[in-house]
């Protein structure tokens, strides 16, 4: 069967496709709310039928065939689950080492993959009166700490990619020093990929700084760097990410999120 | 070190002195809130974001009014939003003093307007934790420990402002976090099924409900359906909360509406968006619509029955129809 | 109805009756294996229908109407239980404060109610080669630590009542110094009663030493002291314990333990 | 500090590297023991005293022979007694090096003769803990913590010889005990029902089985009955152990015989007494009867089916008839 590439797609659809393709089959994936749930479902419907989703509210390994969950704790996460207790059990499994990947989002990120989803403003002085208060950690910081690896989804804008972020909610490679995570007492390996509306990024093994791996359709290394508030490592072998196929876009639009709960959400510019 | 709610020693003593006998704990929700929710209390809120939150209890607290509340929860949406809305309308009737939280928003339905309102205007004191942290803090308390270790989020900025302590593990010599127990004065829990003594059978994700309940000094339980004791104890492996943890049991169908209650109904998305939209307007300064909403659905009614009676039946039928959780099939007593 | 006293009964039957009568109605009682299970069942059938038994293997508040459990973890402990998880949950409830009484036995006791059920011999030197190895703590030490109060059942022989015991398995009042338990970090109040084949004993509030409260039928304060390897506090108001009734003995023999699993066990002299 | 079995860091790494995909894990018990039980292993033993103990697995280990085993359990009876009996008969074929335990006896059926034999002759190394201690040590390990706090038995002599540490609680300033995690190399678990992927549904008391299983590096599960995956996942709230914790699943009816298995059969008191009586004789020096027992029931048979085939059918029927636990009613596949 010849692959047909989609002719039009939105940045969120692109992010979902990229997220989906990043997930290997047969791995246990702890799903954050929003686009990660959409991407996992897409992966299950394409190359990863053996992906085992874990939801922080308690469901482990359900079939995601009862509609897109609107919450990581709603009834749609529980159908034919392989384990179903509560938040403690989900995070305990993670701390033990059962979760291969954590799949999370954030509002702000630094070069070492540390994420902020708590507040914009000055910290600690302005903590009790933030400029903008965000929803808070939820389970993202726990996933970032204790899943074996983390995949991060971000809207790619300069104001969200900063050398220094307002507040470290979810640890990445911390200050980037050798073994910083291990020294802090963390058990997981840390960030694996950052998937944005413009690129797929990884981290340099030596410096732990963010590194461009692939540009999404329509982007160049320069356009990605221009949209990033800190200097990226841009190696010579950056590839162009394969565009979404007609089938991927069809699945997202018709089957997974037809009402556009997460995928159609307008990205605030 | 300071404790909010009860200290571990106070919590143990309170429970040791408590009558733990098996007795009929039914009462009205009004009486339960009068008896067990006081000004200044640390309130443990059950459910997760907008699923199985104790909305009926929260509405009753709003009707009665309480001051200087401390709210403790992992991830919550509607319950704190309703309380914050009451505060936005009239802080002399109801006020929140402090929140110990991991997440306050509505996932697919958007961020919390009134979290922004309260915090950006510095109207409440904040203590941020992760979901696992709050769940583990309730767990430590529920099992009689002053603290529990945790590996996350070591390295985060949360540790600079919350009460967790990082020590060197005496066994591995590596850093580890210790989380202080959280013993709320009262836990608010909604479940699908309970019996008159307080045994609860939760269906679907348990969230942190058993831990919050057993951590607290007193527990109010609302249930969609009271079932017979014999039916409850026929499947002891399915009892999620033993009767002696519970102080008040109230049958309140739709007690977590407009949220999702596994096996009973899905989200009433329309009503959530309506309420959230009014909260967003209130955040921006226009509180009239929110006030109208409270007058109509909370202050203008006596209870949850009168609240849901104002909603179109077709809407109720719709959220029941689209609920994919396993339907309940317990035997229950029919009382007139 | 006139009370008929039993004309003959064994020391174990007496201990069961005394244990049963010591249990107040409507309290949560954590039941050790053996005679405590028999005594709780007798109490439920007489003055204490509202007693809530807890078993360490996980069952909380079952009906004990399916035969005498031969183990605190067997199926007979689970009928119509009000909670049924496992050992962690049972002990966690106890540590939290849900258990009013712990009801345990031991092989050796000291004046402060500390119990040994681990080993006879020298400790710590002889720990790896005990003179007699006993079964070990089981859950008894946990009950002794964290139930609000403890009721202890013992065979009354001089060699079992010693000023210094071989090994402290289950803490009583430790060295008897003021607030010794509190200082050690314990949460429960400690021993409430010691029920033996000869007497009912309590503890002096000031010195925390064992005190005679009542003599069982056929015993005197002197005979009790003679069978005790340390000096008892014997106040002037020691009472004679009311003998077992015909009905109590009938219930034990015919209804509760007709095969004599625990009650007929020969006491090794 | 020394660790027996795996250290917390080793245990995390082992699991992180493990394939956690959902695959058919059926194999023969012989193959499972060959693959997952090694000389020198720390073995976590499921069940409680003589209820739902992994007897079939233990018999197979005895058939194959293993040296220098470390046994870890809270309260156990038949499983360690069988292993100790094999050692009493021929320590060159099977030997126990160390026991980390809370209780080793048979409750109503008497004390353990071979615990006395092993210890009073100083043939094994001992580490005493309480039931809660051992359960909490497995729990700490199962949730990825290097230790867990505990309030009992503070003040006891156990603290002089085991690895617990007493610290001053940094929150309350009072003493508290820290228990090091226990990560066995392999966990031996018998359950009533499992599916081919390893999901387990335990009925009746869970004992410490879920914790022991999730604490260990590898887990062998035997079940009285394999049930369909669709039947298992129809009631996700009743799954006691998720499939990815399990490495081998073997359907072994009567896999915990002659002990009690909730909902399946009560104790075979007669057989337990027969075996225990022979152990008592062995303790006193006469090992002939015990050797005969092993030759007949363990070495002389290939598996549990052949073991129970030697018992009178009326005895099996009797222990099934007197079992008061709720009978199981899951759908299951009939395979020939």
Topology:
The complex is a heterotetramer, with 2 copies of chain A (269 residues) and 2 copies of chain B (336 residues).
Chain A: H1 11-22, E1 28-31, H2 35-45, E2 52-54, E3 59-60, E4 83-84, H3 87-96, E5 101-105, E6 108-109, E7 115-116, E8 119-120, E9 132-133, H4 140-146, E10 149-154, H5 180-184, E11 191-196, E12 199-203, E13 210-215, H6 221-226, E14 239-240, H7 246-256
Parallel strand pairs in A: 1-2, 1-5, 5-10, 10-11, 13-14
Antiparallel strand pairs in A: 3-4, 6-7, 8-9, 11-12, 12-13
Chain B: H1 8-16, H2 29-36, E1 42-45, H3 55-64, E2 69-72, E3 75-76, H4 78-89, E4 96-101, E5 103-104, H5 113-120, E6 125-128, H6 131-142, E7 147-150, H7 158-161, E8 165-168, E9 175-180, E10 186-194, E11 200-201, H8 209-215, E12 218-226, H9 229-232, E13 248-251, H10 269-283, H11 288-299, H12 304-309, H13 313-321
Parallel strand pairs in B: 1-2, 1-10, 2-4, 3-5, 4-6, 10-12, 12-13
Antiparallel strand pairs in B: 7-9, 8-9, 10-11
What does this structure look like?
Chain A is α/β, with parallel strands linked by helices and 269 residues long. Chain A has one domain: 3-Layer(aba) Sandwich (Glutaconate Coenzyme A-transferase), CATH 3.40.1080. Chain A is 23% helix and 18% strand. In chain A, the strands form 4 sheets. An 8-stranded mixed sheet of chain A has the order 2-1-5-10-11-12-13-14, with helices on both faces. Chain A has a two-stranded antiparallel sheet with strand order 3-4. In chain A, strands 6-7 form a two-stranded antiparallel ribbon. Chain B has 336 residues and is of the alpha/beta class. Chain B is globular, with a radius of gyration of 19 Å. In chain B, the strands form 3 sheets. In chain B, strands 1, 2, 4, 6, 10, 11, 12 and 13 form an 8-stranded mixed sheet that branches. Helices cover 35% and strands 18% of the residues of chain B. Chain B has one domain: Glutaconate Coenzyme A-transferase, CATH 3.40.1080.10. The model of chain B has no long low-confidence stretch (mean pLDDT 96). Chain B is built from 13 helices and 13 strands. Chains in contact: A-B, A-D, B-C, B-D, C-D. Chains A and B meet through helix 3, strand 9, helix 4 and helix 5 of A and strand 5, helix 5, strand 6, helix 6 and helix 7 of B.
């Amino acid at each position: 069967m010849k692959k047909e590439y989609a002719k039009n797609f939105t940045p969120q659809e692109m992010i979902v496709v990229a997220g989906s393709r990043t997930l290997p089959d047969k791995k246990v994936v702890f799903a954050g709310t929003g686009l990660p749930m959409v991407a996992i479902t897409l992966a299950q419907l394409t190359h990863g039928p053996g992906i085992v989703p874990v939801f922080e509210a308690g469901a482990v390994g359900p079939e995601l065939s009862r509609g897109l969950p609107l919450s990581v704790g709603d009834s749609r996460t529980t159908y034919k689950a392989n384990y179903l207790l509560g938040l403690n059990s989900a995070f305990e499994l993670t701390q033990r080492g059962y979760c291969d990947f954590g799949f999370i989002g954030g509002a702000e990120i630094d070069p070492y993959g540390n994420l902020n989803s708590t507040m914009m403003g000055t910290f600690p002085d302005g903590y009790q009166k933030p400029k903008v208060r965000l929803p808070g950690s939820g389970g993202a910081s726990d996933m970032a700490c204790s899943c074996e690896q983390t995949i991060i989804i971000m809207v790619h804008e300069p104001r969200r990619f900063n050398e220094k972020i307002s507040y470290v909610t979810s640890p990445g490679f911390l200050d980037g020093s050798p073994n910083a995570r291990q020294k802090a007492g963390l058990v997981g390996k840390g960030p694996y990929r950052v998937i944005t509306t413009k690129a797929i990024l990884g981290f340099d093994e030596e410096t732990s700084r963010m590194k461009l791996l692939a540009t999404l359709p329509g982007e160049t290394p320069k356009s990605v760097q221009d949209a990033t508030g800190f200097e990226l490592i841009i190696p010579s072998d950056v590839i162009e990410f394969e565009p979404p196929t007609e089938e991927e876009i069809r699945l997202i639009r018709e089957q997974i999120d037809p009402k556009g709960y997460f995928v159609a959400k307008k990205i605030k510019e | 070190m300071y404790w909010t709610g009860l200290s571990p020693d106070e919590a143990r003593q309170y429970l040791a002195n408590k009558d733990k006998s098996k007795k009929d704990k039914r009462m009205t929700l009004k009486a339960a809130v009068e008896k067990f929710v006081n000004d200044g209390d640390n309130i443990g809120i059950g459910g997760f974001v907008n699923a199985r939150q104790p909305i009926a209890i929260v509405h009753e607290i709003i009707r009665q009014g309480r001051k200087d509340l401390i709210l403790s929860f992992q991830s919550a949406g509607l319950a704190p939003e309703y309380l914050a809305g009451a505060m936005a309308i009239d802080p002399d009737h109801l006020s929140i003093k402090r929140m110990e939280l991991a997440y306050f928003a509505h996932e697919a339905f958007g961020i919390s307007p009134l979290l922004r309102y309260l915090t950006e205007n510095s109207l409440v004191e904040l203590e941020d934790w992760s979901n696992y942290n709050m769940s583990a803090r309730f767990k430590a308390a529920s099992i009689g420990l002053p603290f529990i270790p945790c590996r996350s989020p070591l390295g985060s900025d949360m540790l600079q402002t919350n009460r967790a302590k990082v020590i060197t593990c005496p066994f591995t010599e590596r850093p580890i976090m210790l989380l202080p127990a959280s013993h709320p004065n009262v836990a608010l829990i909604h479940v699908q099924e309970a019996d008159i003594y307080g045994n609860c059978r939760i269906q679907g994700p348990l969230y942190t409900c058993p831990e919050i309940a057993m951590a607290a000094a007193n527990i109010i339980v609302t249930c969609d359906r009271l079932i017979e004791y014999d039916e409850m104890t026929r499947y002891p492996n399915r009892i999620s909360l033993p009767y002696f943890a519970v102080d008040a049991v109230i049958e309140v169908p739709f007690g977590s509406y407009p949220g999702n209650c596994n096996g009973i109904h899905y989200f009433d998305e329309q009503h959530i968006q309506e309420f959230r939209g009014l909260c967003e307007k209130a955040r921006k300064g226009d509180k009239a619509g929110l006030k109208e909403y409270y007058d109509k659905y909370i202050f203008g009614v006596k209870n949850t029955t009168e609240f849901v009676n104002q909603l179109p039946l077709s809407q109720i039928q719709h959220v029941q129809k689209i609920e994919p959780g396993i339907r309940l099939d317990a035997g229950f007593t029919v009382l007139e």
